[in-house]
Design goal:
Blueprint lengths: L1 H15 L6 H50 L2
Helix pairs in contact: 1-2
Amino acid sequence: MDQLSSELKALDERQKTGVRVDAAIYNSKVDTYNAILARHRAMLSANESDVKAYNELLDRDSVLVDQYNALAKR
C-alpha cells in the first residue's frame, strides 16, 4: 500500500510539473489503492473486538503479575 501511495504521489508531482500522465493508468492505481484500503479497513473492523479482548487480557495479566510479585516480596 505504501508503494502504491508513493507511485500516486509521484504521478501527482509529475502532472504538477506539466508532464502528461496517462489518466487510465492513474485511475487504475487509484482504484487499486481504494480497494486495498477498503479491505484493510474491513479487516480492522472484523478484528476490532478480538484486539480489544487481547488488550484487556494483557491489562489483567499485568495486574496479576504485579500482585504475584508483591506476594513474592513478603
